[in-house]
Structures are given as C-alpha cells and as structure tokens.
Design a protein that fits this description.
The chain is α/β, with parallel strands linked by helices. 42% of the residues lie in helices and 15% in strands. The chain is built from 20 helices and 17 strands. It has a nine-stranded mixed β-sheet, with helices on both faces. The two termini are 32 Å apart. The N terminus is likely disordered.
Length: 654
C-alpha cells in the first residue's frame, strides 16, 4: 500500500537519513566532501542537542582511529564494526592527533582523556557532563577531518558509538555537534509477562536490540520460571544457571544492567529467618555468575492473608497495613544484605502488591513509612494498563510511595484476555513530556513475541531517553526501518502491517489506541466517494482501492523476505497468513465494487468469494502455547471486516 502511506513517508523522509547526495555544490578535498547541502540526520533516540556545521565527510577506504587510554572496549569494537560496514578497508591505529589532520581521524574515549580533550578543543566543542552523556563532534579541517566521540563515562561512550553507527550508515557524515544524555536513569524492558517465556535465543537477540536504542536495563522475571516464583527456594539447575550466565555476559557487553527478579510472595513467610536466608542464598548464587542488580516482586499475590502462623504472631492480624509493614521489614533486610555483599551494587528494586494507581491506602502508607528510602519502587501508572500517564499522575505516585517511582509500563504486553489474537504495535503515545521530572525511569513489559515487541519498545526507550524531544510517529517509522534493514519497500510494508495491529486495549471496554487508523481513513474515503461523489469521483476512488488492495495483499510476502531478523516473520506468522487472506478478500471486494459500478453481474461472484476468504482469514488461530490466551487472529478488526461485509450494499445491482 505504497500510496496508503504517501503522506507519512513524505513527512518522515524530511528527517530520515539520506543515502545519496547530488554532486551539485560539492567539492572533494582529500577524502573530505565539502557540501552546501548537508542535511540534519535522524538519530534515534532523539539527541538532546544536534547542530549542523558546514560540509560533510566521506569516510572513504581508510581512516585513522585514535583510542584514548581506558576507552570502553565494547564502544571501540562497535566503532570498528560500523566503519567496516561503511566500506572502510583500512583502519590505522594512532596515538595522537597531528596539528592539522590530512585525512580522517576518529578519536574515541572518555572526556577526561588528554587526546579527547584536545580533539574537542579542535572541534570547538564542550563535553556533555551528565551521567551517561556523550559528545559527538565531526568537523572538516583543511585536507582532513576529525570525528570525536567523547563519553562522560563508559556508558556515555558506548552511546556515542551507537550514534556513530547510525551516522556511518549514511553515504557521508555531516559536520555536526551532538551533545546528548538520557532524561531518565533507567530505560529498558522487564520480561514480566504470563505465558510462554522467551527462549534464551530470544533474550540474547533482545539484549543486542536494547543496546541499539540506548537502553540500559533488562529485568529477568518471567512469571512461568518456576525457580523465580513457585519453587523460588530451590537453587537453579546447573544447566539453567549456565544459560543465565551467558545472558549476563551478553548484557554486560551491551552495557545493559541485567536485573534478576524473584517472586516469593505466594508462599513467603515474611518473619521466618529461613525464608530470608533462602532468598539471600538465591541472590548469592546469581552473584557468582555476575548478576549485580536484584529485584523482589510482590505483585499479583493475596496480601490480606498470611502464609504462615509466625507472621500472624509477629505482625498481628492480616490486612493491607500489616502486609506493608511485613514487606518493608523483609525488603530492608535484603537491601542491607546486598549492600554488605557489594557496597557498589545498585539498590534493590521492588514492585508492591498495590502496584497501580496512586490512591492513598494503609498499605502504601506503611511502605512509605517503613521501607528503606534506597529501595526503588515500581508502579504501573493509573491502572494496570493505563490509557495515559500525566506528570500530575506521577507526582501523586511520588507522594503515595514516598519516592520517585520506576514506571512498569504494561505496553506492549499481550498476556491478558483483551489482547487475544493481537500483536500490539502502535506508536508509544499518551505519556506526557516532562515525566522525567517525576520518574526514575521506564521499563516496558513486552509481548510473548520478542521480535514484534521491538516496535513498541523502541518508542518506550526513546521516550525515556528524551521525553521532551520524543516524536512518536518518527520513532515508529525508525523502528520499522530498523527491522527492514533500511529497505524502503519493506519499511512501507511493515508500517502497513503495524496499522492492522494498532489497537491497544485496556482492562476496560475502551481501548487507549484505536484500530487501523490509516486503513480506516482509506476505506472511509471510498465509502464517502461512493455515497457523495459523482460518477468520475466514484470510479477514481474504486480504481484507487483496487490498487491499494493489491499492495495490501502483497505486504506479507514483502515482510517475510525483507525483514532483517527472520524471527519477526516467524513469530508473526499467523498474523501475516491472516493478512494475506484478508488482502485477497479486499482485492475481491474492490473487484466487486468495480463490477457493480459498471453494472456487471460478476459483482455478486466477487463479493461471495470475498466473504469466503474473510471467513477463512477470521478462523486462523494464534500459535499454540505461544501466548497465555489463545484464539482467532485479529487483523484491522472493526475496520477491514466491516468494510468487506458492507461492500455488497454500497452499490445496488440491477
């Protein structure tokens, strides 16, 4: 449906990377391209500040790489890989800068290194001094060029390298200055859904993906891991511990903080020293494989009934306030143990039993009063699946819990009944700019399908990085483009597919994002042309629908052959299969309207065949055991199905 997204693409391309520049107004000096038409590149997440300079730089076949002492090895490796992917054949290692570069020099290191300070000075740049911040400066100088990647710390340098990776995908790198840092200190995902957990391969891919969007946190807490919930007191089998060890190492390489979360609430005896010891033993074993961050989840439990008589003796009759006191006592002991074992470890994270809304309650008051201030509290917003979150909402949560909260955003998770048959792939919206002032961060709870989850997660992390500069539609486009490996045809196909999975339900009857808004606009336009237009307008609209239906039907095959990671097509298989059938039904519907408009008796046959295909499409089921709630696949439901059903009534047959 290329024309279906014409307006969107036209808007997007204004800020997207340009992969070819005209020769007009261009002068080559050495390997430096001086151009009057350099354009501002699109970087995701959006940097805090990005300013164009004059000219642009062709990397060419060789560069000199100057690595400052102590520079992060992963960042350096990423820069080397980006250069190789850009066609650079020779990367010469240098130790210092010449007075005037005669070729392209790339300097990488922390901003306190002498060679980095010198490079910044030559570029008339000042280092970003925020935690996890970085500065990237590229300038042309005589017959050469200088590109500086300066990190304020190891994470910042890694993010500079990720930005350089995006810039190096262009045919030339414009002279520019980027000063950037995250608005929120915690950004990433929490694998906290019910149903089939991700495979270890899924998790490895997800960690690599998170690195590309400058996330820094992954919480391991699949509800169906028995050793993290039902059998939490038991140690992990050696084989599983080894697999987790691999994940921890991959996370570290990608500058992702691997957080291990345990859910002891269903059977925990809060006052039993043996249970506290079992909890600490579990964390101690995970510490041996490199885990440094820990989390105690107390969500989805019965908290007004004790699990043991000892709790009743210790804390009195069960109830919300008593539960808050008991949980605080346990968590404080765990935090003390973690600090004793590793004084540099991040603070303990917890999710409370009352994890949504910010209404005052005896439970929240107990946590606020007794819980160690260092412990981080997660909160899901104004509801389990909130339709929107405002700054006042977050301020209310800060007041209720006595600290700024870490948002657990239940999007795009699809483990509840209202999501049956759905992938949730709309842009991340209705979170108010300015939330960074009241949240410590955002963790997205993704879908059972890892690769399709990346679309929404890209938006979540981009918002957490720069909530005030976040553009939902442009980020949505960037997510599609990344899955497509930069191919515009596949990108357009993905955006069409995403539109059929645009609806985002809540626990209520009203979704917080509508279904298929772009397809609906197209089909509503056809209805209007038939109802109100003259003969010419009507026939033009039907002809346009015929063209669009052909392109819609071809989308699944384009995606299957065009996505970079084949796991996307595999995990979305039934949706792509259903879309293909719906596409054929739409083609026949368009043919039926065309025939009816011309008075042809073939219209009835086309409509009948479309009805059969629609029924077959609606009968396709989700992959068995892949999600918690299984059922019929939904494709632009309430939009496409209604149009196909109504089409035979739009033009009367003689």
């Amino acid at each position: 449906m290329r024309m279906f997204f014409t307006s969107l693409i036209a808007v997007m391309l204004g800020g997207m990377p340009v992969f070819a520049q005209t020769a007009a107004g261009t002068q080559l000096t050495g390997n430096v391209q001086v151009s009057r038409s350099a354009v501002l590149p699109a970087i995701f997440p959006a940097p805090v500040s990005m300013t164009l300079g004059k000219g642009s730089i062709l990397l060419g076949k060789s560069v000199v790489l100057v690595v400052a002492p102590g520079a992060d090895t992963a960042a350096t490796a990423l820069v080397r890989a980006a250069l190789t992917a850009a066609g650079v054949e020779t990367i010469t290692t240098g130790k210092q800068l010449p007075p005037v570069p005669d070729k392209t020099y790339i300097v990488i290191g922390n901003d306190d290194a002498a060679v980095v300070r010198s490079a910044l000075s030559k570029s008339d740049a000042v280092a970003d001094s925020h935690a996890e911040g970085y500065t990237l400066a590229s300038v042309t100088m005589g017959n050469g060029a200088l590109i500086t990647l300066a990190g304020h710390d190891a994470n910042g340098l890694y993010y500079a390298a990720q930005t350089f990776r995006q810039l190096a995908q262009r045919s030339s790198i414009p002279a520019l200055l980027i000063q950037d840092h995250p608005a929120m200190s915690v950004r990433g995902t929490i694998e906290g859904f019910y149903g089939a957990p991700w495979s270890m391969t899924d998790r490895e891919k997800h960690l690599h993906f998170l690195a590309t969007v400058k996330a820094n946190t992954y919480v391991y807490t699949p509800k169906d891991d028995p050793y993290a919930r039902d059998r939490w007191r038991e140690p992990y089998p050696a084989a599983t511990l080894k697999e987790l060890s691999t994940l921890v190492a991959i996370a570290r390489q990608n500058h992702i903080n691997f957080v291990y979360a345990i859910s002891p609430g269903p059977t925990m005896c809060f006052s039993d020293p043996a249970d506290l010891k079992a909890l600490e033993a579990k964390f101690s074993a995970l510490r041996t494989i490199g885990v440094q961050s820990f989390y105690v989840a107390l969500d989805d439990i019965e908290y007004k009934k004790w699990n043991c008589a000892l709790d009743s003796t210790t804390f009195g009759p069960s109830g919300a306030e008593a539960a808050g006191i008991a949980q605080a006592k346990l968590l404080n002991a765990v935090q003390a143990n973690l600090s004793a074992a590793d004084p540099t470890a991040p603070p303990l994270i917890m999710v409370p039993t009352e994890y949504y809304d910010a209404k005052e309650s005896p439970y929240k008051a107990a946590l606020r009063k007794y819980l160690d201030p260092k412990v981080v509290v997660q909160w899901t917003g104004t509801d389990v699946v909130p339709p929107a979150i405002s700054v006042p909402d977050a301020k209310a949560a800060t007041k209720a819990f006595g600290r700024k909260t870490l948002l657990w955003d239940n999007y795009p998770v699809n483990d509840y009944g209202q999501t049956t048959g759905r992938l949730l792939m709309a842009p991340y919206v209705k979170r108010e700019a300015g939330l960074s002032s009241e949240l410590t961060g955002i963790l997205s709870n993704p879908m059972n399908q890892e690769a399709p989850s990346r679309v929404a997660v890209t938006g979540v992390v981009a918002f957490a990085w720069n909530d005030k500069g976040y553009d939902a539609e442009r980020t949505w486009y960037a997510a599609a483009r990344e899955l497509a490996g930069g191919d515009e045809r596949t990108t357009t196909a993905l955006l069409t597919f995403f539109d059929t999975q645009h609806m985002a339900p809540t626990f209520g009857s009203q979704p917080w994002q509508e279904q298929a808004p772009k397809l609906k606009a197209l089909l509503d336009g056809v209805r209007a042309a038939i109802a109100y237009g003259d003969e010419v307008t009507r026939r033009q609209a039907i002809a346009h629908l015929v063209q669009q239906a052909d392109q819609f039907a071809g989308v699944p095959d384009i995606i299957r052959s065009g996505v970079v990671d084949t796991s996307f097509a595999q995990q979305a298989r039934p949706w792509l299969d259903a879309m293909q059938l719906w596409g054929r039904a739409l083609q026949l519907t368009a043919a039926g309207l065309d025939a009816a408009d011309k008075g042809s008796p073939a219209a009835a046959r086309h409509f009948a065949h479309a009805k059969q295909l629609a029924a077959a499409a609606a009968a396709i089921q989700s992959i068995k055991d892949a999600t918690r709630f299984e059922g019929a696949i939904k494709i632009a439901d309430g939009v496409l199905d209604e149009f196909v059903a109504a089409a035979p009534t739009l033009i009367a047959l003689e």
